[in-house]
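Write out the 3D structure for:
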Amino acid sequence: MGQQQPVKARPLSPHLQIYKPMLTMMMSIFHRLTGVGLYFGALVFTWWLMAAASGPEYYNWVMDLLATLPGMLVLILVSWAFFHHMLGGIRHFIWDFGKGFELATVEMMAWVNLVGAIVLTALFWLFI
């Protein structure tokens, strides 16, 4: 019989322990997470609408619950998720036209997405 060939180790697929975390990578992860968060936000919004349709007693109970510190935190996080996901979608829309792929532009757009979501959330809560 012939001699057996030595088994070569197969290369590992890159994963989060290999990649150095970069802003653009983190923004991609947060874009996905905010999409999931918006599903939760849609449930909260639906619950609020159902409370409004159920009558003043239940509606007032839901509004009192949402006015607590944990309730406000949920509402603020959902609104941040909305603005972050919206700006990330605009960024991807620009990329769909083949624009903005230069490294400096990609990095700048990631910062605009991050800071813009925080500023829009703050402005939203300041004016409501």
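The mean pLDDT is 93.
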